[in-house]
């Protein structure tokens, strides 16, 4: 198996289950455990793999209200706003974008009221000119 193909298969396997052992992946892909371990370490060193995560299935552990908030922020305030948002626990993902909106932020809270409070706070940050919020209703993956 070519190195690129092996890396692609490793990523696919880890995306399906980040807890899959190196030994199990090596058996499934027909390569030695040493080769598998070496490829994973190289991908981590290059930054192709930057971490491992947990996907929560139980509502008991999930934040129950999610939304995407698009933000128009003044250019001179963008970096400060990003720093502030990055430290807020409700912010699960944050992207800079092109076009009408400067930022796209995924927000998770326990209740609609907490979401409303967060958005009201976001709108008060210096440099934030406008926001547009879309509640996420269901996952389709």
Explain what you see.
By secondary structure, the chain is α+β, with helices and mostly antiparallel strands. It folds into two domains: 3-46, Winged helix-like DNA-binding domain superfamily/Winged helix DNA-binding domain (Arc Repressor Mutant, subunit A); 65-136, Lrp/AsnC effector binding domain/regulation of amino acid metabolism (RAM) domain (Alpha-Beta Plaits, 2-Layer Sandwich), CATH 3.30.70.920. It is built from five helices and four strands. The chain has helices spanning 3-16, 22-29, 33-46, 78-86, 112-123, and strands at 65-73, 91-96, 103-109, 128-136. A four-stranded antiparallel sheet has the order 2-3-1-4, covered by helices on one side. Helix 1 crosses helix 3 (33-46) and helix 2 crosses helix 3. The longest helix has 14 residues, at 3-16. The mean pLDDT is 87.
Brief characterization of the structure:
By secondary structure, this protein is α+β, with helices and mostly antiparallel strands. It is built from 5 helices and 4 strands.
